[in-house]
Specification:
Structural class: alpha+beta
Helix content: 25-40%
Number of helices: 7
Order of helices and strands: HHEEEEEHEEEHEHEEEHEH
Shape: globular
Low-confidence stretches: 25-30
Strand order of the largest sheet: 2-3-4-7-6
Length: 259
Amino acid sequence: MGVCLSRAGEAVDDYLDGQSRYYREAKNAKDYLKKKQCQSQSIGGDSSHVSAVLNSGISPIYPSLPKASEKHHCRNVYDGDTLTLDNGDRVRLLGIDTPELKEKQPFAVDSKEYTKKYCHGKDIWLSFDGDENKDHYGRLLAFVWVSLGESKWLCINEGLVASGLAHAYSPTKTKKVHNYDKMLSLQKLARTHKRGQWKSYKDEKVITTPNGSAFHKSTGKGSTTSSDCKHLAKSKNLSIIPASQAYDRGVHPCRNCFG
């Protein structure tokens, strides 16, 4: 009788141990899937695009925050690249340009929802690039960071570009953020995999100037450098190149030509 009870006890212990192992394995699998889903959502796109970004060495997800980053709380997200802090300061995300809500540009709502998902009503961290931390509107110019847990930090600026919801942007050729080349690489990957606003992208011939930071719509045929843009009225030495080449050089669309 004692032997039978002993074996029964061992069987129960084995069963419970097995259930415990199953629970741990199931929990680990669930945590792994949650982590992968979090990474996928922060980059945007199918598995091939996410894998390409994560394995390219230019992931927008970092193991730690930049030094001297400042912790704040986000009160409101205005659009994809602008938000407001609890203290009333407005922040303009550096190095990117998202579609405009007022002009009802395609993917403007998507870019806002991306930033809102990670920032609205949550703790965020700001890092700056150089000494000029404000623009002429008085907005803070910053990189915005959020925690993904497990020592994972997402740079929202880079995440928007990787998701195809923002262009890499520099107002002039001389004022570029420290990670501008990375932004251009993320932008090219998003265009290659047709993510976000690149989904229906079709290459076209555009006009550039030797020192300009924007490219312009061409109204001519072939290699003719004709344009109705007022910014080209006095420009000389114009060149016509594919828009994709202009993007890869870090030249952004002229807002007068392309809205």
